[in-house]
Amino acid sequence: MAQPAEPPPSAQPTVPPPWWRLGLTPRFWVLLVPTGLVAGMLATGLKELLRAVQHAAWSYPGGSFVDAVGKSGDVRRVAVLAAAGVLAGLGWWALERVAGTRGGNLTDAVWSGEGRLPLVPTFVTATLSETVIALGASLGREAPPKEASAAVAGWLAGRAGLSSEERRLLVACAAGAAFAAIYNIPFGGAVFAVEVLLGSLSLPLVVPALAASWIATAISWTVLPDRAYYPALPTYPASASLVVWAVVAGPVIGLGAAGYVWLIGRVQAHKASGRWLLVALPAGFATLGAVAVAYPQLLGNGRDAAEQVFLGGYGLPALAALMALKPLVTGLCLESGASGGLFTPTTSYGALAGALLGGLWALAWPGAPGGACALVGATAMLGAAMNGPVSAVVLMVELTHHLTSLLVPSLAALVGATLVTRALGVSSIYAARLPAREPGRWAGSDRWQGTAVGAPGGAWPSLRASLGRRRQPPADPSPGPS
Question: Which of 26, 44, 129, 469 reaches 20 to 30 Å from 335, CA-CA?
Answer without folding.
Answer: 44
